[in-house]
Amino acid sequence: MRKFVVDCMLGKLARWLRILGFDTVFDCSLSDAQLLHLARSQGRALLTRDRELASKGGYLVKSGDWEQALKEVLDAFHLKDKISPFTRCPVCNSPLREIGAEEAKLLVPPIAFARATKFALCPGCGRVYWDGTHLKRMELIVNKLGGNHER
Ligand SMILES: [Zn+2]
User: What pLDDT score does 138 carry?
Assistant: First the structure.
């Protein structure tokens, strides 16, 4: 599976790559040299808007608009049929663990619990995700991008 490291200018793109299930490092404390090192040592594709950095071993993202940039990356790396949404935490990049209603009941606000049918816990940061309105909006965007995850 394709893995990424994303430079600090592309935060929204990084978040969306995670939402679509791709292992994505995003850490604004890393220098250009560290980004390049991380890309090489971990076999990650470095995504950047910086021409100079790209010339040293990264992929230059052409669009400044995050939605276009995401489309561009999905095309460039042939990822459209590898999308696996809502399997990775958008905040900390850890793979999510699905949890049952019993466990979710203790973690999710009652209103959300009453409406949701699926729950997932992030073992990395402890956040809980469920299929509420937020997820619906994400699904719309995923569908618009041409992801065929509903197989
Ligand atoms: Zn997390």
Answer: 73
